[in-house]
């Protein structure tokens, strides 16, 4: 099996059968329904090279740009409340997160009207 340096075509040197492979760089994902093109991941998502899907940024990370291969980590002592954060502003103090804090905010909002 021969593979060219760009990794886009593989050929079986015995049968001369070729297999065209479309690969996407990190931050992009393969969309087969669009003529097998690579599209950038949206903000809040990232992908490794050769990915078919983009993944949500984990809790504690955010991604503000299109087409990135990794998410940015929130500053020390800060985290996000959900996965897929799109801005640094979604990083909040770790003291203000968690299910009990969310519950407490909900109850307080009921009494404020």
From TrEMBL:
Pfam families: Ephrin_rec_like. Coiled coil: none annotated. Residues 44-91 form the Tyrosine-protein kinase ephrin type A/B receptor-like domain. SMART domains: Ephrin_rec_like. This is Tyrosine-protein kinase ephrin type A/B receptor-like domain-containing protein.
């Amino acid at each position: 099996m021969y593979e060219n340096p760009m990794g886009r075509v593989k050929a079986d040197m015995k049968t001369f059968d070729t297999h065209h492979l479309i690969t996407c760089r990190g931050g992009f994902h393969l969309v087969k329904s669009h003529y097998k093109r690579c599209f950038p991941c949206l903000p809040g998502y990232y992908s490794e090279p050769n990915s078919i899907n983009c993944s949500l940024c984990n809790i504690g990370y955010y991604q503000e740009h299109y087409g990135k291969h990794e998410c940015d980590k929130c500053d020390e002592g800060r985290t996000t409340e959900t996965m897929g954060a799109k801005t640094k502003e979604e990083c909040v103090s770790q003291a203000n997160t968690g299910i009990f804090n969310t519950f407490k905010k909900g109850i307080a909002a009921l009494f404020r009207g």
